[in-house]
Specification:
5-stranded mixed sheet; OB fold (Dihydrolipoamide Acetyltransferase, E2P); 728 residues; 24 strands; D-amino Acid Aminotransferase, Chain A, domain 1; alpha+beta; globular; Helix Hairpins; 25 helices
Length: 728
């Protein structure tokens, strides 16, 4: 017994030191297999001795039971944003303002601390008497979500400060602000697994980290191996001897909290600019994403003297690196055909390392942007030819795009890029928009194949139709669709063919890596999709001008596909409602306050024409023949006016932005529409309300600029509760 107790204590101390050595000191003291073996032994011993339970034991990293949901917590000190710039000159101007604010022309020493700006999620972590107490997301800066369950399984965040001995621990609260991030190697591993499972891929490591941190299951969070670096001080009850930020980082490391090893302390703005330049050359070799360098006044007394504005401290600035741009050779151009027939030029280039990844393909946008130009300056952006030396950069460090050409390096045999006059996939007719672009190519905005049976369009439409935001067919992703098409013996050319796959079960099983479990999951997903209803079908068909919002609006106005077909073109346009009709849709009775209930004057004719076309009629009839339900789930007939609640959302045009914990975007949109709102995808003067979750971006900024009412998630939940919708 005594020996086992001592062994537990020994293993806890050893594994705690091992975590600190790995994440803080960057000098591992044991191999990963040895760590795993020791951890497994500790798990077994603790199971035999539950009386020795310790919430700070390394075994708590493996994750417990999922939590029920998130609670919102106010920050003891606001987590303010940082002013940023892309201009070295503006960094120097900031430094001059700092010197002026401190009342010195340079005689007073003003040391600066420089740290890489991690492209992750800001997190406040608090220990009380040395033991992890709480972790809270930045949220809106004043309050955030309690994600302590996630912090407990992030190995870089210590459960107990120090090496486990408890000596020298700060008393009371010790709060640091830092950044949670997903290592690039983990990002690639997770996306490879998601691709194998036919799940949607994460767009970038930051989104993946955000999605992971908001998971309710600690075991899933633990499996993704998030990292953490501390970069700031929050509430500290017991002040230490440190005089500035640099000393505080050193104290964090002593306590076992990781900080970025590439941080530096400099004595002049010239040295800070040098650190910015040096790091830009090295950052793409790191295993985490960065987008800038944070420069701050180091000394705490000088920070206090400088103070802050209403939104950001005056003593800190973030220099953000412009998108990396490199030159390479344009080898050829592929003409890609999308689900609506849109033909897009895609560059194939000599591979080049750009922002940490090898890039060989990039978008050329549209044919109107790659043409002869009137001036040489314009030609460097538009007159791109096969064989040219082109400039490539990543928009937002994610999507590669060709942004220009080196005219002086053009080879004699460079070939102009010729837009296709027939579809490159099916040789069908092509339509150019606007029509005048046939005479003036500079006007062109898009070019489309007009053959609805085009194989390339069919593939893209099938992928879109099965997608999560449309028919949500589990197991039928892009890879599976390609496998079925490549098989050759299973018809998959129309939407209805998807629902006929059940009769081809044995052939599906013959496809490589399509075992019984995967096939049965696919067929179950197809069966479930039959009952999605009219709005999902309309959204999934890829009809021009009909996205999910328009599809729900049509389904709200028409009880079924048959009723929709009875409506003439004028019935699809915006219309004046009687008071009874307005009440039936949950809208104000005053016409000036009602939300629009129809398509625009430009889009109504196009949608009506498709619905009544031979192809459109055949498609719907085919879907009905295989059992797809074409009735509406959202329809609210006028006869039900008395039963429609008068809610706070009635008649409001609502825009959703950012990430919400309590609701996913699509189900919430449908819920709000059932309560009388119109959910829009963009902010305008007609918007009544913006509901902003975490990481809300440009839509929130525009709403504030226009003076539109903004709700956070707690305010949304409060309003839903008045409508009889309980909080989750």
């Amino acid at each position: 017994m005594a020996s086992e107790v001592e062994r537990i204590r020994h293993l806890r101390a050893l594994l705690t030191r091992a975590n600190k050595a790995y994440y803080v000191d960057q000098s591992p003291i044991m191999s990963d297999p040895q760590f795993d073996r020791d951890l497994a032994e500790l798990v077994a011993l603790e199971a035999k001795h539950p009386e020795l339970d310790d919430p700070a034991s390394p075994t708590r990293r493996v994750g417990g039971e999922p939590i029920a949901g998130f609670i919102t917590v106010a920050h003891a000190l606001p987590m303010l944003s940082i002013d940023n710039t892309y201009d070295e000159h503006q960094v120097r101007e900031w430094h001059l303002r700092v010197l002026k604010g401190l009342g010195t022309d340079g005689d007073l020493e003003v040391p600066l601390a420089c740290e890489p700006k991690i492209d992750g999620l800001a997190l406040s972590v608090t220990w009380k008497d040395g033991v992890l107490e709480r972790a809270v997301t930045r949220g809106d800066g004043a309050k955030g979500d309690d994600v302590t369950h996630a912090a407990r399984v992030i190995k870089a965040i210590p459960l107990r400060l120090g090496d486990g001995g408890g000596s020298g621990l700060p008393k009371g609260r010790f709060e640091v602000r830092g950044e949670v991030f997903l290592p690039l190697s983990e990002f690639e591993r997770i996306n490879a697994e998601r691709e194998q499972a036919d799940d949607d891929l994460f767009m970038n490591p930051r989104n993946a980290a955000a999605g992971t941190l908001k998971q309710l299951d600690p075991k899933l969070i633990a499996s993704r191996k998030l990292g953490f670096f501390a970069h700031g001080r929050g509430v500290v009850d017991e002040e230490g001897p440190e005089r500035g930020h640099w000393d505080f980082l050193a104290r964090c490391r002593e306590l076992g909290i990781p900080t970025n090893p590439l941080a530096s302390r400099v004595s002049s703005i010239d040295d800070a600019i040098g650190a910015i330049t040096t790091f830009d050359k090295a950052r793409h070799s790191l295993d985490y994403a960065t987008d800038g360098m944070v420069v701050r006044v180091d000394r705490f007394d000088q920070q206090a003297s400088l103070g802050m504005t209403s939104k950001s401290p005056r003593w800190i600035i973030a220099y953000k690196y412009p998108a990396e741009r490199k030159t390479t050779r344009l080898l050829e151009v592929h003409h890609q055909v999308g689900k609506t027939g849109k033909i897009t030029p895609r560059a194939v280039m000599t591979p080049v390392l750009l922002a940490g990844t090898t890039v060989q393909h990039a978008t050329l946008h549209n044919y109107g942007r790659i043409r002869d130009a009137a001036t040489e300056q314009e030609a460097t952006r538009t007159d791109i030819r096969i064989g040219d030396e082109v400039w490539v950069e990543k928009a937002g460090e994610i999507i590669p795009q060709v942004v220009g050409v080196t005219l002086a390096a053009r080879p004699r045999d460079a070939k102009a890029i010729r837009p296709p006059h027939r579809c490159p996939e099916c040789d069908g007719p092509v339509e150019v928009e606007p029509p005048e672009a046939w005479e003036d190519p500079s006007l062109e905005t898009s070019r489309r194949c007009m053959n609805p049976e085009c194989p390339a369009q069919v593939r893209e439409r099938l992928i879109w139709f099965a997608g999560r935001k449309q028919m949500d067919i589990e197991g039928l992703g892009e890879k599976t669709i390609d496998q079925i098409i490549a098989h050759g013996g299973i018809p998959l050319r129309t939407f209805a063919d998807i629902f006929r796959l059940r009769s081809h079960r044995e052939q599906l099983l013959s496809i490589d890596r399509m075992g019984e479990r995967k096939v049965d999951k696919l067929l179950a997903g197809i069966d479930a999709a039959k009952a999605r209803g009219l709005s999902a079908v309309l959204s999934g068909m890829g009809i021009r001008h009909v996205g999910d919002t328009t599809a729900r609006m049509l389904a709200r106005c028409f009880a079924s596909y048959e009723d929709l077909m009875k409506a003439d073109e004028r019935a699809l346009r915006p219309k004046s409602l009687t008071k009874e009709e307005a009440r039936s849709l949950g809208m104000p009775e005053e016409p000036s306050q009602r939300a629009e209930t129809g398509l625009g004057k430009e889009t109504a004719p196009a949608v009506h024409a498709y619905l009544h076309s031979v192809v459109g009629k055949r498609t719907f009839a085919d879907l009905a023949s295989v059992g797809v339900d074409l009735s509406s789930r959202e329809h609210r007939p006028a006869s039900a006016a008395a039963h429609v609640p008068n809610t706070v959302f009635a008649g409001k045009t609502v825009v959703l932005t950012g990430s919400l914990v309590s609701h996913e975007r699509e189900p919430l949109s449908r819920l709000l529409e059932s309560l009388g709102a119109k959910v829009s995808g963009s902010v305008s003067a007609k918007t009544s309300l913006v509901i902003a979750g975490e990481s809300a971006g440009s839509k929130l900024a525009k709403a504030l600029e226009l003076g539109i009412e903004v709700w956070d998630e707690p305010r949304l939940l409060e309003a839903l509760s008045t409508c009889g919708i309980p909080s989750r």
